[in-house]
């Protein structure tokens, strides 16, 4: 049997097998930033590289982090009840590799420094990492099962802007990447959070005719 050609003229490709490796490879085509999630239990700071991070609410300020249930950080974050998400800059690839556990037995990367209270005092919360693009400190608001992961919802307690003028570390197709310099002549995309001229229409939300009748 010959498959019908796709709209773009290419032959329809066979569907890949539904296995975890194929799923990871396909989802790896969605480029993401890279973060390190930090927490502290007692006097010990722990970190985990993560790109399954997303903002989910502006009122209240909430974000999510997906954590492997088998990972040591899963229990540590629960013990601490709080964590921080540190957005890595393009020159912090060594931090990502270190906290991904590939070199956990080796020395910490040069320049790794934790920041506690902004006034220099230890406020007892989750530390952030100096030199990042920015960091967000959170407490655990809720959690939900997500297969072999747990989806942690964090309520934002503090925003920490980082160094300006740096570009982010990017992960795509199993490799670290860096953004190219932007084209100054390119048209900027609208800000989806503030663009009042952007309207999204969902026809399935249109009330049925009988709902519009006078009662």
SS content category: mainly beta
Number of helix segments? 3
Order of helices and strands: HEEEEEHEHEEEEEE
Regarding quaternary structure, how should these chains be classified?
single chain
Helix content: 10-25%
In angstroms, what is the radius of gyration?
Answer: 22 Å
Shape: globular
Query: Taking all residues together, what is the mean pLDDT?
Result: 82
| Estimated share of beta-strand residues | 25-35%
Query: What characterizes the major β-sheet?
Result: 7 strands, antiparallel
Strand order of the largest sheet: 3-2-6-9-10-5-4
Uncertain segments are 1-5, 211-215
Distance between the termini: 57 Å
Instruction: Count the beta strands.
Output: 12
Account of the 3D structure:
The chain is mainly beta and 215 residues long. The protein is 11% helix and 34% strand. The chain has three helices and twelve strands; from the N terminus they run H-E-E-E-E-E-H-E-H-E-E-E-E-E-E. It has a seven-stranded antiparallel β-sheet with strand order 3-2-6-9-10-5-4. Strand 4 and strand 5 form a beta hairpin. The longest helix is centred in the middle third of the chain and has 9 residues. The N and C termini lie far apart (57 Å). The N terminus and C terminus are likely disordered.
């Amino acid at each position: 049997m010959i498959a019908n050609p796709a709209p773009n003229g290419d032959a329809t490709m066979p569907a890949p097998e539904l296995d975890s490796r194929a799923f990871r490879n396909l989802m790896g085509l969605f480029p993401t930033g890279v973060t390190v999630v930090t927490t502290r239990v007692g006097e010990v700071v722990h970190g985990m590289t993560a790109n399954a991070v997303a903002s989910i609410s502006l009122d209240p300020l909430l974000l999510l982090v997906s954590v492997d249930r088998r990972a040591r950080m899963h229990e540590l974050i629960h013990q601490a009840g709080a964590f921080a998400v540190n957005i890595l800059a393009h020159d912090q690839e060594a931090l990502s590799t270190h906290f991904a556990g590939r070199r956990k037995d080796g020395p910490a990367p040069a320049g790794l420094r934790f920041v506690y209270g902004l006034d220099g005092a230890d406020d007892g919360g989750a530390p952030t990492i100096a030199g990042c693009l920015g960091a967000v400190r959170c407490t655990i608001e809720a959690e939900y099962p997500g297969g072999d992961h747990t989806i942690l919802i964090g309520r934002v307690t503090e925003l920490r802007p980082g160094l300006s003028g740096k570009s982010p570390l990017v992960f795509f197709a199993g490799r670290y990447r860096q953004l190219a310099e932007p084209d100054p002549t390119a048209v900027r995309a609208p800000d989806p959070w503030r663009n009042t001229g952007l309207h999204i229409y969902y026809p399935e939300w249109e009330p049925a005719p009988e709902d519009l009748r006078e009662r």
